[in-house]
Design brief:
CATH class of chain A: Mainly Alpha
Strand content of chain A: under 5%
CATH class of one domain in chain B: Alpha Beta
Largest interface: A-B, 22 and 27 residues
Radius of gyration of chain A: 12 Å
CATH superfamily of chain A: ACP-like
Order of helices and strands of chain A: HHHH
Strand order of the largest sheet of chain B: 2-3-1-9-8-10
Distance between the termini of chain B: 30 Å
Number of strands of chain A: 0
Structural class of chain B: alpha+beta
Low-confidence stretches of chain B: none
Number of helices of chain B: 28
Helix content of chain A: 40-55%
CATH topology of one domain in chain B: Glutamine Phosphoribosylpyrophosphate, subunit 1, domain 1
Radius of gyration of chain B: 24 Å
Oligomer: heterodimer
Structural class of chain A: mainly alpha
Distance between the termini of chain A: 18 Å
Number of domains of chain A: 1
Chain lengths: ~90, ~625
Amino acid sequence: MQDTIEPRTTLRTLILEDYLFTDDDTALIDDMSFLDEGILDSMGILEIIMFLEERFQVTVAEDEMVPQNLDSINNLLAYIERKKKAA
Amino acid sequence: MCGFAGILEFGSTNTRLPDQQLLRKMADTIVHRGPDDSAEYVDGALGFAHRRLSIIDLDTGNQPMVSADGQVAIVFNGEIFNYIELRRELQKRGVEFRTTSDTEVILELYRRFGIDFVSQLNGQFSIALWDSREKTLHLIRDRIGICPLFYTIETGRLVFGSEVKALLPALRRRPSISLSGLDQVFTFWAPLSPNTIFEGIREVSPGEIVTVSDGVISTTRYWDWPMPSGEYSAAPESELVDDLRDLLVDATRLRLRADVPVGAYLSGGLDSSAIASLVLNHTTNRLRTFSLTFDEHEFDESGYQSELVDHAHVDHSELRVGQAQILDNLERTVWHTEMPILRTAPVPMGLLSGHAHDSGFKVVLTGEGADEVLGGYDLFKEAKVRRFWSRQPQSSVRPLLLKRLYPYLKLPAGKDAEYLKLFFGNGIESPDDPGFSHSPRWATSSKAKRFLSADVLAELPGDPVGPYLDSLPEAVRLTDSFNRAQFIESKTLMSGYLLCSQGDRMLMMNSVEGRFPFLDHRVIEFASTLHPSLKMKVLNEKYLLKKAVRRYLPDAIVSRHKQPYRAPDVTGEAGSDSGVVGACLSGESLRATGLFDAGKVSRLRNKAARGRLSTSESQAFTGILTTQLVHQQFCQQ
């Protein structure tokens, strides 16, 4: 099924609900580092990868599992965009 | 062990005498600590109540005990392991004893030497000693903090007891949760001594004496963990191995002194196996051992336990525990821990002491303390690797050693080093920071604070880590980083959590006394003379201990990868609207308590119901649930 909600909202909702446990939209800034801010731990990163693969139909290669791709909302969005273009 | 409670009225306008009925009521709250006998004693403004668990001198050791001239009275919880030697010395000086108990030895030592007698004791104890000549009360706690002792001051009187619950009948109002205590639990896993989780209630800190005289309260420290200043023993390694073995044999031998049978816990690890083997090889005791096993494979050590049982031919039984029992027993566990817990590990320990009790045992030896004293924890290794890596912070290879340390750590494949840097790199640039060893753990635990309510967050005094590190004695700040990590671990996690929530409280809830040979102060003082490399050689933990006990143990036990004791969590029930979770974590209940943000907790429960929580989230869940239980059990009318 095609995701009708834009990726930014989808990702923000995931992080706000499941990792910041809040509905306060201002609690998350899009270039905030998940790891520096303690939002995600090792398992959280794996969960995000799984989420990307399931929701956005991208396959995350091992050498792409780097903070530059996965460590903020903006990094995630740019990564998804690159992957879709490449496909 | 036993339990006691008491009241000292010292207000100038207060002429009330302690009420014997009230004293009995206080002691009855801790009947589990001493089901064998009870008695009260009142002398003017002072009242004592005692519950006895008979272990030594079953016939004449009853308490409260008063000196022959009626001038000194005592209630005492614990054991003085060298009481036979001390008694003999006193007899040589002409003292005549009426009993064969260790309690009377304490009384006579005090009469001879005054309060300085404490330094002669080898044991685990909390003591309340009333000198009617001086109208002075001394509350004394053992060096390490094995036996608990709490007190509070309420307008002109001091109320004290072995557990917080023993104070409650005497208090004019229920205690409230101390926000700074809660902040400390959600950082260090336990309040920093002398704080407790309750506002206004303090503990006598390990190694300290609280004295009340003429209404003035003062504190004296008689012992602290020794800090090497850089000069270590120059003796050859082989001699140190022999010395350590001899010391452990003697510490174990002393801890077998009892007029009832003594058993032992067997985890399958090096420490408890070492203690069991010392008993078997150096005493004539037949040993009965007890173990925990778990349904969940990742927590279970039964393979190693069987290895030792087969090797040593001990009479052994095991108790199998699953997630359901942990949840069923959580409420009762918290009633005994008297503080929130971030992990469920105390619950199975409480079930195990029940099993030992049902098997007819009042006393068990355990291997507790070896990791702190002789350098065993993964955290010490982690700090060592991080320090090694901090010398070359750009290295991609150095942090890979952390993977060896935590093989179960789930990391995205391929770029391990990148993530290891992010997960363990916290503080890597400041290896000389006194909190360097513990900062990753404290950061993980502290994440639970994001679930505190806005009102509570606004009232918190600020991060407790800085003030704690600032309070470290200069000798600790200046010593080797390994010694410093040991000191911090012993003072925070060990005495506040391991010996309390996971130790004394879980044992005594079923009237079982734990004894810990590795925590004999002579072993601690000896270990402080060892160069850190004899505790951890490169990344080989408890190096000297392994050498000392290798001859008794199967290789599989000595060379096994250390597995920290953990138990299944209860997050599987997070979504439940019934039972303890439903009752404590409903929006209504959370709002009534006011400590946590009901919306955030609800989201945490939803996440748990959908899948597994991370380590910090699971700790938060258990911490929130058990804080709510503490509030319900102790703070509500």
